[in-house]
């Protein structure tokens, strides 16, 4: 596969149009929109499919995975209410696009991917782009306990439930954003950890993600 690592006026203009579309669809956090405007999404696409990079659609990236729809990335990121310096656990690195958006807003990202081919590509591409999260290869459904607790956790695959092990890795006052449902569609769920064993749960809009696979998932 051939990837295009050139970012010129055409690509930058396409991102500006994408940002305006996301604004019209209800994304309000200017930090999120600014991050979408800055991160070159076409870097994650084979050159053959460049014309798909700035459409508001998900797109296959191999290994049965997709790069999420920009609206979905912006929606989940907005729900996290990230503060600069927040320690964020990302379950499902994928191609790394969501990782870059989180880091642009100022998050310190710990990201885990179970597909080795995606992991191997991402650990090369993201540092080349200037993003240096802490990468892990493994089962994201059990989190990364050794670096817990986290201020925020984002899950980028659909789960049957909110894994208890992830809730335990949140700080008090922390938020997890996760799509929960069956393998066809999920509701976006946010959980605020209000005490050691106390949580405030909100069920939001319907989305469709690839399944979260692992010991505490499908």
Describe the structure.
It is found in: Cytoplasm. The protein is 29% helix and 28% strand. It has 218 residues and is α/β, with parallel strands linked by helices. The strands form two sheets. Strands 5-4-3-6-7-8-9 form a seven-stranded mixed β-sheet. A two-stranded antiparallel sheet has the order 1-2. Helix 6 (164-168) links the parallel strand 6 (150-155) and strand 7. The longest helix has 16 residues, at 9-24. The protein is globular and about 50 Å long. It starts with 8 loop residues before the first helix and ends in an 11-residue tail after the last strand.
Throw out a few tags for this protein.
alpha/beta; seven-stranded mixed beta sheet; 6 helices; 9 strands; 29% helix; SAM-dependent_MTases_sf; protein-L-isoaspartate (D-aspartate) O-methyltransferase activity; methyltransferase
Write down the overall mean pLDDT: 93
Q: How many β strands by DSSP? A: 9
Rg over CA atoms, rounded to whole Å, is: 16 Å
Unreliable residue runs: none
Which structural category fits the helices and strands?
A: alpha/beta
Number of helices: 6
Order of helices and strands: HHEEHEHEHEEHEEE
Adjacency order of strands in the biggest sheet: 5-4-3-6-7-8-9
| Helix content estimate | 25-40%
Determine the N-to-C terminus distance: 30 Å
Query: What's the shape?
Result: globular
Largest β sheet strand count, sense and barrel closure: 7 strands, mixed
Strand content: 25-35%
Family: Belongs to the methyltransferase superfamily. L-isoaspartyl/D-aspartyl protein methyltransferase family.
Subcellular location: Cytoplasm
GO molecular function, one term: protein-L-isoaspartate (D-aspartate) O-methyltransferase activity
Main location: cytoplasm
């Amino acid at each position: 596969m051939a990837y295009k690592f050139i970012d010129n006026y055409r690509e930058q203009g396409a991102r500006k149009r994408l940002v305006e579309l996301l604004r019209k669809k209800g994304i309000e956090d200017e930090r999120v929109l600014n991050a979408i405007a800055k991160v070159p999404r076409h870097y994650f696409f084979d050159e053959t499919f460049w014309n798909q990079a700035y459409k508001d659609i998900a797109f296959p990236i191999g290994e049965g995975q997709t790069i999420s729809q920009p609206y979905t990335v912006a929606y989940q990121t907005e729900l996290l209410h990230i503060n600069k310096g927040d320690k964020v656990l990302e379950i499902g690195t994928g191609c790394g696009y969501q990782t870059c958006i989180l880091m642009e807003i100022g998050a310190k990202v710990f990201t885990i991917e179970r597909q080795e081919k995606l992991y191997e590509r991402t650990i090369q591409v993201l540092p080349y782009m200037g993003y240096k999260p802490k990468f892990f290869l493994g089962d994201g459904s059990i989190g990364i306990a050794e670096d817990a607790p986290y201020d925020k956790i984002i899950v980028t695959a659909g789960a049957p439930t909110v894994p208890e092990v992830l809730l335990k890795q949140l700080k008090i006052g922390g938020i997890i954003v996760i799509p929960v449902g069956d393998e066809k569609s999920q509701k976006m769920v946010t959980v605020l950890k209000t005490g050691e064993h106390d949580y405030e749960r909100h069920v939001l809009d319907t989305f469709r993600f690839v399944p979260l696979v692992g010991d505490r998932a499908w």
